[in-house]
Amino acid sequence: MRFVLNGRRTDLDAPPLKRLLDVLREDCGLAGTKEGCGEGECGACTVLVDGAPVNSCLVPFAHVRGREVTTIEGLRGRLPEALVRGGGTQCGICTPGILMAASALGPRPTAARVREALAGNLCRCTGYAGIVRALAGSRSAPRPRVRSAR
Amino acid sequence: MVTALSRLALRQPATLDEALRLLRDEGPLVPLAGCTDVYVGFHFGTVAARRFLDLQALDELRGIRRRGETLVIGALATYTDIIRSPLVRRRLPVLVEASRQVGSAQIQNRGTLGGNIANASPAGDTLPVLAVAEATVVLLSAAGERRVPFGSFYTGYRRTVMRPDELIAAVEVPPVEGRQWFRKVGTRAAQAISKVVMAAVRAPHPRIALGSVAPTVVRLPRTEAALADGGSLADAQAALLDEIQPIDDLRSTAAYRRRVSANLLAQFWSETAG
Q1: Is B228 on the interface with A (CB under 8 A)?
Q2: What share of chain B is helix, strand, coil (3-state, %, to 5)?
Q3: Measured between CB atoms, does B192 come within 8 Å of chain A?
Q4: Which in A79, A106, B163, B186 has the greatest CB count within 10 A?
């Protein structure tokens, strides 16, 4: 079955109802996408399908035929750096899902929009304040020059 | 993941006609749309079915449009489609509100209105809205079309009038006169299944529907009549408490649900006054 994975055309044979999460981790070797609850509550397995965040634990592989899938491995831009600098990460299990959900926001989102976009992403470490602070006002699009950290 | 997904069969029709033929000739097949309910069932091993029908390619079931004065919402419209639709926002803003409170952005991007109806949970967030809007469910089968008033779609807990060879094609919503009101009460703002969910319309004859307080979503005809006849709010609340049969479950208690339902009626009535 053909689909686009992180910008690359991919042709892969897997059972049609296999979870996209398992296809990514087992068949594609992309272990950045995490399994948390496995029932669509925690958002740890969030990836983008045609640019929209979805829980990959609830998506059958058949549903990405001909579509573009973006995982944390394919995420471009400065969001990860913003999250690290802002102290928005601790144990790291929820972090890829947080970044993928946040990446669907436009540039410089308000704190309220970040909270709404991340309502389906549970973090048991940070208490969310650091995450929201780090991502509110951040740019999601790549910048031409990378500033060095002070 | 309890269910062995590689052992399940999936039929993937390319057209609506093919899908209806498969349902007639090779059923029973369980239709799959956004999968946000079915995959939770797979995870817990509670789905008995082994053969499924993928609706994904059936563009005939997508789309939100107007036909004369009627709003037609395709069964495969996602919550995100509904939230973004200027037509729904104008005609049935409470459906937008309900959709915004389903799950999370990730769920809203996948879950469909047809799925919420077919899943037949008494807690379905959009169902009280469809009840007060007096929507019609359009069912299709190889034998033809059947139009079912939403008020007679459910026959009991998780039971509907649908036959195994039928698909939900669309929901038709006539114009709704009066001020629309919606409120969901859950454990938290997102990712919560409702403890009580109410939709209502303030009109000379008010319409009120509640979810999570009975085996199915319910309209409250005697509560509505009490308010329409100029009865006091207390009379209407007494009628309401008589018309619902909430239970204790893992999300809430019957007593809490009764109290909250009566309070929601008061909130609806005061917020839509004048």
Answers
A1: no
A2: 35, 25, 40
A3: no
A4: A79
